Amino acid sequence: NMGLYRERVGALTVVSPSTQARDAVFSRVKNFFLISAGSGADFFVIWIAALCIVCIHEMAHGVACKHWGGEVHEMGFLLMFFQPCFYCNVNDAWTFESRAQKLWVTAAGGFTEVLLGSTCVLIWAVTEPGSWVHGMCYLVFMLSLSMTLLCNLNPLIKLDGYYILADLIRVENL
């Protein structure tokens, strides 16, 4: 409920020098949890944006692998659980001597998504509501941060977070 949220967050902003500034912030985040409401995008645009973000994510894994001296033998597209997804074969990372290098390759996709989402938050905050840039930045930051934090870095799902945890505690196939 937005009233309860506003009440709780409002208590934190009591020391705010201006209630107008606080109200402006609340008016801009009132639809924060509704991706399409904040961006004005339809399902097709959201889907294309998500695919582009995932493509950037996978390319980051490949660039990190190449940076540390590995080779990327293939990148591609497949259906997983009837959902389209991209992949990047960075198996050369397993041959790296340094555990830190392996971790960087695994974390590169999530790190890039958080960086992309954070940049879009900053652009969204300074652009005019209703503009194309404002809507797209909202869409990209909502998608990239939610996909990364809820799915990709979750160690309970066999994606990046799972492999990062496995490398950190040095246990294969958790």
How would you summarize this macromolecular structure in one to three sentences?
With 174 residues, the protein is mainly α. It has seven helices and two strands; from the N terminus they run H-H-H-H-E-E-H-H-H.
Structure explained in plain terms:
It is a single chain. The chain has seven helices and two strands. It has 174 residues and is mainly α. It has a two-stranded antiparallel ribbon with strand order 1-2. A hairpin with a 2-residue loop joins β1 (74-80) and β2 (83-89). α4 runs antiparallel to α5 (99-126). The chain starts with a helix and ends in a 5-residue tail after the last helix.
Rg over CA atoms, rounded to whole Å, is 19 Å
SSE class: mainly alpha
Major sheet: arrangement of strands? 1-2
SSE pattern = HHHHEEHHH
Low-confidence stretches: none
Determine the number of helices (DSSP H or I, runs of at least 4 residues).
7
Instruction: Characterize the biggest β-sheet.
Output: 2 strands, antiparallel
Strand percent estimate: 5-15%
Helix content: 55-70%
Q: What is the 3D form?
A: elongated
Number of strands: 2
The averaged pLDDT comes out at 82
Distance linking N and C termini: 38 Å
What distinguishing features does this structure have?
174 residues; mainly alpha; two-stranded antiparallel sheet; 7 helices
Task: Set out the fold topology.
Layout: H1 2-12, H2 19-29, H3 35-39, H4 43-67, E1 74-80, E2 83-89, H5 99-126, H6 132-152, H7 160-169
Antiparallel strand pairs: 1-2
